[in-house]
Amino acid sequence: MADSFAPDVGGIERQVEALARHQTSEGHDVTVITAVADEMDIDLDVRRAAPGRWLTVAFPWRNHKMVAEVLDRGDIDVVHAHFTVISPLASYVTKAASRRGIPVGATVHSLWWQVTIATRVSTLPFGWGRMWAAWSGVSSVAAGRVSRTLRKVSEVSVVPNLVEIGWWRPSEPIRETGTGEIRLVLVGRLKKRKHVDEFLDALAAARARISPDIAVRVDVVGAGPRHDDLQRQITRLGLADWVTLLGHRTPEQIRTLLHESDLFVASSRQESFGIAALEARAAGLPVLGYRGNGLVDFIADGTEGVLVADGPEMTEALVSLFSQPDELTRLRKTTTTFAPSVDVDAAMSSVYGLYRRARAMHRLPVLP
Question: Does the domain made of 11-163+344-360 have the CATH classification 3.40.50.2000?
Answer without folding.
Answer: yes
